[in-house]
Amino acid sequence: MFDLILRNANLPDGREGFDIAIRDGRIAAVERGIKAEAGEVIDASGRLVSPPFCDPHFHMDATLSLGLPRMNVSGTLLEGIALWGELRPLLTKEALVERALRYCDLAVSQGLLFIRSHVDTSDPRLVTAEALLEVREKVAPYIDLQLVAFPQDGYFRAAEGEAALTRALDMGIEIVGGIPHFERTMEEGRRSVEALCRIAAERGLRVDMHCDETDDPLSRHIETLAAETIRFGLKGRVAGSHLTSMHSMDNYYVSKLIPLMAEAEIEVIANPLINIMLQGRHDTYPKRRGLTRVRELMAAGLNVSFGQDCTMDPWYSMGSADMLEVAHMGIHVGQLSGIEDKKRVYEAITVNSARAMGLEGYGLEVGCKADLVVLQAADVIEAVRLKPTRLVVLKGGKVVSRTPARISSLTLDGRPEVIDMGLDYLPPA
Ligand SMILES: [Zn+2]
Q1: Which residue, 6, 136, 413, 420, has fewest beta-carbon neighbours within 10 Å?
Q2: What was the pLDDT predicted at 130?
Q3: What's the sign of the alpha-carbon dihedral 329, 317, 239, 172?
């Protein structure tokens, strides 16, 4: 007797027609034709059943603040930072909590159940940290929320940047952030990487820095981050987020840099939506794309994941908590159009990001947590093409969201009366 059985599921690795049985919040069996009773049976009808989406890079303190106190006119990263600086003194804990909870509702409906959010620690009031720590507690039954202490205005550059970041860690934020390319000078940026890695090593914490989010090919803080990771014994516990300057770097230099990053086991987190929107803004034509070198980093064995970064905030007016939208953009901007490329991109928003976040019990093996999503698509290739409806979302074996399938009724003479985008347009096998 099981609590729930998902029948006739296609799995992300391409296996078809499997049943997934759940007991006590865990996956108890993954087999064809399970002959057993269950409290509830859900028929996946030959659709993809996947572990949930994981967003390894987000800003939950800024989300859904679009238009407050005004819009970003130039659309640049720097105006976004200035605009956030205008909004920050006006922030209240109540409003931050309310916006974050509303965002998490949307995330659940999109099958997004694991989120790492940076939390701006530049305002020494730390109302952002207070609010997000409360949100982390409140959403724990349905979303695992990790928090990064993020000195948006610079660890050294902001008036009380160092003290405020330390206080945020003392309050219970569990990851050390940074923004070396925004410090006053390259040298200050280098020193910030060293200081922040030292803090992480002393406290036994992970590191996740906004690193080289610029088109300047000489912004090379990732090199320092890799070297300090090795020096402080932090291998496999340090993430470099964005790394957009790598797009513009000299190829010879990159041929030395990528092996160093691999040696340090750096977690690479690219943010395709934001990178294509914000990078290249100072170019005329041709305009650079700005996405880091995803294909080359994956080929070198680095764990590359994709984050969403923003939804409706000072930096990005779009977004919908949809990690398949992130994957879709990543495929385009990174020119990752091959079948194997697309499979790797699906991994970048699921298993790779779970690994970057250090999640345990994530996946479809027996014994893993019964966190699952049924999609209105047959396989991962179709999922990244269609960004389909998340029909059912399970957390710990319990249904936390249902969405009706998108089925269109047509009134065209001599044409089908109904089409299901998720199953009717499969390419020939
Ligand atoms: Zn970010």
Answers
A1: 413
A2: 98
A3: negative
- Going from the Cα of 225 to the center of ligand 1, the distance in angstroms, rounded, reads 17
- Residue 429 lies inside a defined structural domain of this protein: no
Annotated catalytic sites, by residue?
213
φ/ψ (deg, to 5) at 113: -115, 0
Q: How far apart are CA 350 and CA 50, in angstroms?
A: 9
Q: Tell me what pLDDT residue 429 has.
A: 77
Q: By the 8 A CB rule, do 225 and 239 touch?
A: no
Q: Identify the segments of the chain with pLDDT beneath 70.
A: none
| 278, 76 Cβ separation under 8 angstroms | yes
Name the nearest CA neighbour of 241 among 213, 260, 281. 213
Determine contact, residues 393/109, Cβ cutoff 8 Å.
Answer: yes
Q: Are 145 and 107 in contact (CB under 8 A)?
A: no
Task: Provide the residues around ligand 1 (an ion) whose CB is within 5 A.
Answer: 309
Looking at the domain assignment, is residue 142 inside a domain? yes
Residues 40 and 67 in one domain: no
Task: Specify the CATH number for the domain of residue 327.
Answer: 3.20.20.140
Q: What is the pLDDT of residue 428?
A: 85
Q: How far is the CA of 318 from the centre of ligand 1 (A)?
A: 15
Domain that includes residue 244, residue range: 53-356
Q: Which secondary structure element, helix H or strand E, spans residue 401, and what is its range?
A: strand 398-402
Span from the CA of 26 to the centroid of ligand 1 (angstroms): 33
**Digit-coded pLDDT (tens) for 374-393:** 999 999 999 999 999 999 99
**Whole-number Cα distances in Å, 274 to 55, 183, 251, 325, 427:** 14, 21, 24, 12, 31
Beta strands in 263-356 (DSSP E): 267-270, 304-306
